[in-house]
Amino acid sequence: MGKRLFDLVSASVLLLAAAPILALAVLAIYLESGRPVVFVQTRVGQSGRPFCLYKLRSLPTGPRDATEHTPEPLAVGRWLRRWALDELPQLWNVLRGEMSLVGPRPILPSEAAGYNDRQRRRLNVRPGLTGWAQIHGRNALPWAERIEYDLWYVEHAGPWTDLKILFYTPVVLVSGTGVRGPGDRDPSAREVRRDADGAPTADAPET
């Protein structure tokens, strides 16, 4: 109950504070690439429940072929991803109770389907805007290592752990740690993941 109340109050305050940034970002996306300005995708939440996750769109629209090169992010998209501002609409997911401020990043249904029993413990808590894996490398971590950090969080979750994560998250964002993936690749541009029905998508989990 305490964590949920903290999420509600904090998400409300952050949404109000971020409103001007969101408005400018929406305008920039629209001017560069038109509609839609919000990317919506099914993700898996606590106890395996699916929900619609919201992000500011950072990639060009149009059909994609998984065998071809994934399009580069929009100019504004690079900036949004650098500072994780594309994730701000997920504060609405927090208000709805589908996410928390702190927790493992929400995953795709196809990824959850491939989890073993131990890895499924990652779904014992609400997914979060930031988490233990994000302050320990973010996108620079191999996917399996990210899961291990998330499992550590599930086993040690508590107020002090959450406060530590919230304290270090701005430090990670300012330093730019983990913006790019393993091998200095840009996961937003070159790593195509798949959603539940097998359709390719380049807006994969990042932070």
How would you describe this structure to a colleague?
Helix content is 42%, strand content 12%. It has one domain (2-201). It is an alpha+beta fold. The longest helix is centred in the N-terminal third of the chain and has 32 residues, at 2-33. The relative contact order is 0.16. The strands form three sheets. The chain has a two-stranded antiparallel ribbon. Strands 3-4 form a two-stranded parallel sheet. The model is unreliable at 186-207 (pLDDT under 50). Helix 1 packs antiparallel against helix 2 (75-82).
Question: Can you summarize this structure?
Answer:
It is built from seven helices and six strands.
Total number of β-strand segments?
A: 6
User: Judging from the principal axes of the Cα atoms, what is the shape?
Assistant: globular
* Biggest sheet details: 2 strands, antiparallel
Helix segment count?
A: 7
Widest beta sheet: strand line-up: 1-2
**Rounded mean pLDDT score:** 85
Distance between the termini: 25 Å
Instruction: Give the DSSP E fraction (strand runs of 2 or more residues).
Output: 5-15%
Provide the low-confidence segments as ranges.
Answer: 186-207
Question: Radius of gyration, Cα only, in angstroms?
Answer: 16 Å
* Domain count: 1
Order of helices and strands: HEEHHEHEHHHEE
> Considering DSSP H and I runs of 4 or more, what fraction of the residues is helical?
40-55%
Give the structural class.
alpha+beta
